[in-house]
Amino acid sequence: MKTLDGFQDSLRHLREELSLCCKNYSREEGSVTILPVTKRLPLDAVRFSELAGFASVGENLVQEGVRKAAEYAGDMKWELIGHLQSNKVKAAVGVFDRIQSVDSEKLVQRLDRLLGESGQTLRILIQVNTAEDPAKHGIQPGDAPALVEAALNCPNLILEGFMTIGRLSENPSDAELAFSTLRELRDRMAGVFGRPFPELSMGMSGDIGMAVKCGSTQVRVGTMLFGERPAVS
Fold first, then answer.
1. Rg of the Cα trace of the chain?
2. What is the DSSP string of 116-146?
3. Closest C-alpha among 22, 41, 23 to residue 33
4. pLDDT, tens digit, for every residue of 64-110?
């Protein structure tokens, strides 16, 4: 993992890249936010993020987020960007301020019930597998209307938009197709349900430019900011 100085240098370069992308694609300056992804990294990564002014970080695993939230002494919000299993929902509701990986009506209903029991509300995004990658989670685009309707009918859930993961490929057009498909889906759902769904969480360290071009409002960045993660043991 990078030092604090290395992180700060990388963050400056990332912000410059985002600014240039926004200019090149006629996007408003500051219209794309950064979510630092701290999965499999020590608490220093969270501390670096807070020092840089970030209010939230992203974690892939519920149990890792729960542990870090309990151990971290600073002021930080936590977003779940990895797959949420039904047996981890109760733990996730107690820690995460937003879940970006909602991908089934069963999950929506379980979240809403647990939130109602505790008197909470929760911000969510619906994860859509627009890359059509069998290795990735997320609903198929054609199943989105039913899941959007189900989420909107849950009084304890706040549906803010959609998330996707671009296909790993050397061909930029693969990422462009996945990202533009999500933007078009969001626009269609906004028309059907009469709601804006402002958040489009798409783009990571390797495909930021294409994500901005296609309308991303948040990029999820880990490796570019913090360096390579330790291997899974």
1. 17
2. HHHT--EEEEEEB-TT--TTS-SB-GGGHHH
3. 22
4. 999 999 999 999 999 999 999 989 999 999 899 999 999 999 999 99
The pLDDT of residue 231 is: 74
Helix, strand, coil tally for the chain in percent (to 5): 45, 15, 35
In 3D space, the residue among 59, 102, 52 whose CA is nearest the CA of residue 77 turns out to be 59
Looking at beta carbons, which pairs linking 49-52 to residues 24 or more positions away fall under 8 Å? 49/76, 50/74, 50/75, 50/76, 51/4, 52/7, 52/8, 52/11
Residue 155: pLDDT over 80: yes
Q: How many CA atoms lie within 13 A of 19 on its CB side?
A: 6
For residue 153, the 8-state DSSP code is T
Q: CA geometry: angle at 182 spanning 177 and 187, to 5°? A: 125
- HSE toward the beta carbon, residue 14, CA cutoff 13 A: 27
Has this prediction a pTM greater than 0.85? yes
Cα angle value 66/72/73 (rounded, 5°) = 140
What pLDDT is stored for residue 167 in this prediction?
A: 78
- Mean confidence (pLDDT) of the chain: 95
CA 186/CA 144 separation, integer angstroms:
9
